[in-house]
Amino acid sequence: MNRGPWKKWTPAVAVSVTIAALAAGGSIAASARTDLPDRTPQDVLEMVAAHEVEGFSGRLAASVELGLPQLPGEAVRDAEAQDTGAVDARLAELLALVPGTHEARVFADGHDRSRLQLLDGAEEKNLIRNDDELWFYDSVEDRAVHATLPAGGAGHGESTDPWRGDGALPTPERIAERVLDRAEAHSTVTVEEGTADSGRDAYTVRLDPRTDETLVDSVLVDVDAQTGMPLGVEVRAVGQDEPAVSVAFTEFTPGAPDAGLFDFEPPAGATVEEQTLPDCGPWSGAAGAREDGNRGPVSGDRARGEVVGDGWETVVVMPAGSGPGELAGSELLNELAVEVEGGRVLGTPLLNVLLTDDGRVLAGPVPQHRLLEVAGAGTGEE
Amino acid sequence: MPERTARAGGMLASELHLLFRRRRTWALFAALAAVPVLIGLAVRVSTGPPRGRGPAFLDQVAGNGVFLAVVGLLVSVPLFLPLTVAVVAGDSIAGEASQGTLRYLLTAPVSRAGLLLVKYAVIVVFCAAAVLVLAGTGVLVGLVLFGVQPAVLLSGDTLGLGASYARIALIAAHVAVSLLGLGAIGLFLSTLSDVPVGVMAAIAVLAVAAQIAGSLPQLDWLHPWLFTEHWTGFVDLLRQPVLWDSFVDNAVLQAGYVLVFGALAYGRFATKDVLS
Predict the structure, then answer these.
(1) Residue B198 contacts by C-beta under 8 Å, 6 or more apart in sequence?
(2) Parallel, antiparallel, or unpaired: how do β-strands A306-308 and A143-148 relate?
(3) Are residues A225 and A310 in the same domain?
(4) How is A196-222 classified by DSSP, letter by letter?
(5) B175 close to B133: Cβ distance less than 8 angstroms
(6) Residue A315 belongs to what domain range?
(7) Do residues A228 and A47 lie in contact, with contact meaning Cβ atoms separated by under 8 Å?
(8) SS3 content of chain B, % helix, strand, coil (to 5)
(9) Given a cut of 90, is residue B141 above it in pLDDT?
(10) Do A198 and A135 fall into the same domain?
(11) Rounded Cα–Cα distance for residues B213 and B202 (Å)
(12) Residues 6+ positions from A326 with CB-CB distance below 8 Å
């Protein structure tokens, strides 16, 4: 046989090798580091504090690995259908909603106009703010919720404004601002150069808690080298390889998006609900609770609870009979929680919750024994 | 080589003529056109499914005929369209070989690579025509049975009529592009055998198997490489603003399949002994 026939196969080999090389080369190029000017942690924190990104379009990926048992969707629907335990239903919904990976698109033009689109297969949930107009739209139920911000509250970024204050939009920006706010008081702060998930050059600020009495191993914040905008936040829990919580832009483009995006009209035929603030529709429950779980120790308002300890060791103690107390009767919670002396503990990699037998609820990003200590000390004083 | 190009062009024209003269081609088109007609009639005579049941957007058809084309495409993507492509692509070389006409084709002053390109171009034209028939019937039947209104996107935004049809054209383009990789695989498989029916079955089985593999979470490392991965990704074109990721990823993926299997088909066909 002459060599002729083999030459005919050359294109097939060449194309396959090229594609394999491109596939491999793509991942190498993505991890290539660029040379950024050296900055101290202090410089980077100041960059974040001073950053001004008026408008951007981006794609967010959020993943939560809390090590909770995965609840099938039917369990949620069963709980809803039975209507017996409203608490169970809400809890199940929350537990099904939070873990896993979520994708969203975010558009913002200044502080007063923003749009968040939660993507889930062929479904989409939209959250739109256009000055003092708030809209929520759910494509599955074809349902829209409308609310108007109180005059004066809009545009000033006061805490009455649910879109800024408590961050119904849990973007890396909001979370990072909270986390970095008092970072240096309780943590060792270091800075590395790197590339954010969105492929932009970034500084990675790493916070290592100075104490061992916490479940938080470290917190990493990617800060855009060009604009100072936080592009990603990752919280690692002690003894877990996967980040417990990670919120990051996978795409980020500075610049104001098309203004028409914020000008929402509910579609004809959709169910439209009017809501008055502060009970801001479907987000008041879910988003608020999600934030509490993710926020870590340096968060702000703990309206109803007493706070013990500070920094990464913070424990919140809710007296018996306050809001979450009713959780104690939840059957679902009973299944998830572990019996300990004096109560039951709901354990996650980042957050432990102790429901004492006398009805108090203690929560914090701390090991179980610390919660029990605080609980014990609390009863001693009374 | 303008002469050779002209000859290949002439061959393409005659092959296309052959494709659209065959009764089989029109039977395939008729079967595809029946999909939106049947769905439309079923929705028209019934009270419609409750929200959230059945294929996506089906519940919207009754209120707005614009969506009938989308539902028709969505329903046909997993099986009907791949089957028709399997028939045409599987027959392209193996059919000529089994009838003994391949020898005569090769006596034409066109290289084997040129002949393969012509055959693949015919497959591409068929893919586009099949999707056009399906989407066009959907649009017309929707218009007749339900009337049309501005379409509501997944994001809750309402589009004007022109923009709605532009989105449907985009979706049709996505579906047509989705079939190109399968067409190239079919062309390669068709060079391997002299039994067209066997090749058609193999292509159809591959399309279904790839979709099954794509639904198994254990194989998620493989998913980005499956040619069926973005087949139903066109729902992203119904968001506001358009989310181009699946469209672009799909186009790149299909281009990769076309290159690899085109080159494989050339390797096989150029070295093949054509005896009959």
Answers:
(1) B94
(2) unpaired
(3) no
(4) -TTS-EEEEEEEEES-SSSSEEEEEEE
(5) no
(6) 306-381
(7) yes
(8) 75, 0, 25
(9) yes
(10) yes
(11) 16
(12) A87
A25 in a domain, yes or no? Answer: no
How do residues A74-95 score in pLDDT, each as one tens digit? 455 555 444 445 556 666 666 6
pLDDT of A248-292, one tens digit each?
Answer: 999 998 888 988 899 898 888 788 988 876 544 444 443 333 333
Q: Identify whether residues A312 and A279 lie together within a single domain.
A: no
Q: What is the CATH number of the domain that holds A373?
A: 3.30.310
**A202 and A260 fall within a common domain:** yes
Shared-domain flag, residues A109 and A255 = yes
Q: Which residues of B touch A (CB under 8 A)?
A: 51-52, 56, 63, 149, 152, 154-158, 235, 239-241, 243, 256, 259-260, 263-264, 266-267, 270-271
Across the interface, of B241, B260, B270, the residue whose CB is closest to A258 is B241
Establish if A3 belongs to a structural domain.
Answer: no
Per-position DSSP letters for A224-280, written without gaps between them? ETTT--EEEEEEEETT-SS-SEEEEEEEEEES---GGGG---PPTT-EEEEE-TTS-
Which helix (H) or strand (E) covers residue A56, if one does?
Answer: strand A55-64
Q: Indicate yes or no: CB of B158 within 8 angstroms of CB of A270.
A: no
Relative to beta strand A113-120, strand A315-318 is: unpaired
Query: How many distinct structural domains can be found in chain A?
Result: 2
Q: Which residues contact A201 (CB under 8 A, 6 or more apart)?
A: A34, A36, A193, A195, A224, A225, A226
3-state secondary structure (DSSP) of residue A41: helix
Contacts of A270 in chain B (CB under 8 A): 152, 156
Q: Would you call A40 helix, strand, or coil by DSSP? A: coil
Domain boundary residue, one of A294, A319, A351: A294
Domain shared by A227 and A356, yes or no: no
Q: Which residues contact A338 (CB under 8 A, 6 or more apart)?
A: A344, A345, A346, A347
A362's enclosing H/E stretch is: strand A361-364
We report the CATH number of the domain holding residue A91 as 2.50.20.10
The reported pLDDT for the residue numbered A294 is 38
* Residue with the two structure tokens 């449907």: B168
Q: Based on the fold, state whether residues A312 and A241 are members of the same structural domain.
A: no
Question: In chain A, what percentage of residues exceed pLDDT 90?
Answer: 8
* Domain assignment present for A66: yes
pLDDT, one tens digit per residue, over B207-254 is 999 999 999 999 999 999 999 999 988 988 989 899 998 999 999 999
Query: Residues in chain A whose beta carbon is closer than 8 A to a beta carbon of chain B?
Result: 5, 8-12, 14-16, 19, 105, 117, 119, 121-124, 126, 135, 137, 139-142, 144, 257-258, 261, 264-270
Subunit contact A15:B260, Cβ cutoff 8 A: yes
- ipTM of the predicted structure? 0.78
Min Cα separation A37/chain B (Å): 33
Residue A150 included in any domain: yes
- pLDDT for the residue A68: 62
Last residue of a domain, one of A294, A327, A360: A294
* Residue type (1 letter), A49: A
Residues A285, A324: one domain?
Answer: no
